[in-house]
Design brief:
This protein is an alpha/beta fold and 272 residues long. It has 12 helices and 7 strands. It has helices spanning 8-16, 19-24, 28-41, 45-60, 69-82, 85-96, 100-105, 109-120, 156-169, 198-204, 209-215, 237-247, and strands spanning 125-128, 148-153, 172-177, 188-195, 217-226, 255-259, 263-269. A 7-stranded mixed beta sheet has the order 3-2-1-4-5-7-6, sandwiched between helices.
């Protein structure tokens, strides 16, 4: 007698009801992708559900310490109302302090995008993938008038906040609630940013990143990885450099590295 197939949607619904993930607004497509992956790996549905919960926690852990988005939006509205670019930068930087990735990049902002765009050219259309709070760095990017910026994230409240921010900044495009590892971006663009996320994505499922990179309709892909662990105690530059080069090993895309104090950037010429 054959075993009854697990009810995937019931498992997804059970996890989605968790108060913690409801508060974050995690997409069901993310939960479903992780559940299906773990069902293929684990011996039974119970083990798969336990493993899926653990994997989802790893994916979502960095979303549990986000800022008060209502307060941050009010502060940004007040800053933009002044019409003073310096005030806007101060408030954007203060908000970016709330997330590890953007907080670590704050000391680099004056040189970060100028050095990258010296390689890629200044883009007219940017896709910021798994963006977190990085769109708040737009005031440092030097984008041209009429530029479009598409910010992709799986955190619903964050996407709502970024949508309001793009409107305040007068930048075309959109903030999109989308798991880019399940549903690849359809927008074409000049540059796709995927900053300090590859090593975390590959923990979700090994080999998951390359199909995303293949699917992107952009001229340049800009990846990055940290040079030290989150605690700062361990050097990880070479480990992650090997990971990136391993992922790209089967592709003919020219690669330019740019090293910053705490981040190694890879500018990939996909369709230059």
């Amino acid at each position: 007698m054959s075993k009854e197939a697990p009810d995937v949607e019931a498992i997804v619904a059970g996890i989605a009801r968790n108060k913690k993930y409801r508060a974050i607004g995690v997409t069901e497509s993310t939960i479903r992708d992780i559940v299906l992956s773990e069902l293929a790996r684990q011996p039974n549905a119970k083990a798969a559900m336990q493993s899926a919960r653990k994997k989802l926690h790893e994916v979502m852990a960095l979303y549990l310490g986000d800022p008060d988005y209502d307060a941050a939006r009010a502060q940004l509205e007040a800053a933009y109302a002044t019409g003073d670019a310096a005030t806007v930068r101060v408030v954007c930087a203060a908000t970016m302090q709330a997330h590890d990735s953007t907080r670590e990049r704050l000391p680099l902002l004056d040189e970060f995008y100028p050095r990258i765009f010296a390689v890629t050219g200044v883009p007219h259309t940017v896709l910021d993938l798994a963006c977190a709070l990085n769109p708040l760095a737009i005031p440092w990017m030097g984008l041209p008038p009429g530029a479009r910026f598409f910010a992709y994230d799986i955190h619903r409240q964050r996407v709502d906040f970024l949508s309001a921010y793009l409107a305040l900044a007068g930048v075309g495009g959109a903030a999109v609630e989308q798991d880019i590892l399940v549903d690849y971006p359809r927008e074409s663009g000049d540059v796709a940013l995927l900053l300090k996320e590859i090593h975390r994505m590959e923990k979700r499922r090994r080999g998951i990143v390359l199909p995303l990179l293949d699917a992107l309709d952009v001229r340049w892909i800009v990846l990055s990885s940290p040079t030290r662990s989150r605690t700062g105690r361990r050097a990880v530059k070479e480990v992650y450099r090997e990971q990136v080069r391993g992922i790209l090993s089967g592709r003919p895309w020219p690669l330019t590295e740019i090293e910053f104090a705490n981040e190694l950037v890879y500018c990939i010429a996909k369709n230059p």
